[in-house]
Design a protein that fits this description.
With 419 residues, this protein is mostly helical. Helices cover 77% and strands 0% of the residues.
Amino acid sequence: MVGLLSLAHLMAFVDRFAMSAVAGQIKLAFRIGETELGALQGLAIALPYAAVILPFGRLVDRLPPRRMVLIGLGIWTAGGLACAFCTSAAQLWAARMMMGIGQAAFIPASLALFAGAFRGGSLAQALSVFTAGSTLGKSVALLAAGGILSLDLSMPGFHALFGAPWRAVFMLTAAPNLLLLLALAVVGLPRATPAVRDGAIGREAPLVQPGFLTFALFALTPIVLIQASAAWTPVFYVRYFQFTPARSAALLGIAVLVAAPVGHLAGGALAAAGLRRGVFPGRLVAICLAAAAALGLIFCFAPVAALSLAGYSLIVLILGIAAPATLAGVNMLAPPGRAGAANALYMGLATLIGVGLGPTAVGAMSDAWFGGPGGLRQSLAVLMLAVPAAAMALAIACGKLWRPLATAPDQPSVSQMSV
């Protein structure tokens, strides 16, 4: 289960982030500005995702989640393939929205299966594999797009089949999902979610509880940083260090391929070790955010590409460490019987703010505050400093989240703990 769902999660982010490697080509093809380009990368997916994820999360708490996993994967694959055939920015918006709807069905169903199968420290370690799939997906997207863009475009049949290099990127990155859909349909997945397992159906607790909601808002801040920076980083190196699009995608893909899994797996181990000692995982998230803010200045303003790439790689690694801790905390604080809805609320907020508003805000700052394309560096720097600062203020305001755990985290009552 962990392997299949993590692989599907990887492919979800391949399809999301393939566009970042060809953003410049799409901007020219459809004659759009920085703000609309950022919105296509983020809001086009995030808005429908946030609109439907809570109803899908409620269904996950009532129906076998296997069905939601298959439906979600099928819908977003269709949207990814449709991107290759768009002839206008409006059509590309519609295709990206379809991807968002499909992923909104898949992700809470997958997280509910994890919450039903694992507890406490074991949950943190299993989730580290799942979250590693998301950042590996970004790396695979960049490497695959870089490889496709470096193809000999004069080879026989290329233009007849694809029409343009950016169309080939969308088509060839989405096509493997068809094999994954077949594999998931053939191999059975567990049917028990926490609500079914614990007999919580029919006695639902309120979802929006202060402790849960406060931590969820704090926990989504690493996602804002990594998603917004990832959307613009390929363009950043083309614009400021004169990389070709293919070289930028390839180098960033390699950097993320190394840094992301190391960070996520290390984060799972650190969160599990802290939980066994009674330390709530929010502390680990706060440390990672502080380190990412400092590294953000190196990434944005380093005078040479190698130093900037090193800074970005360390940001990916450190925010990867935070990822399993955020999801572990969300599932620990989820009200009884509401794992599907709780994960849906958290992922909806994270996607709307991180995937949707983050890239759009960077593009808007570049257009409005810093004089257009040349202001991308300053816009990214503002993001890398402002988001951790806001997170720290929130962490100080909700100091009760940093008290030691009152209940052993691997006991069955973990989802009902008061922190």
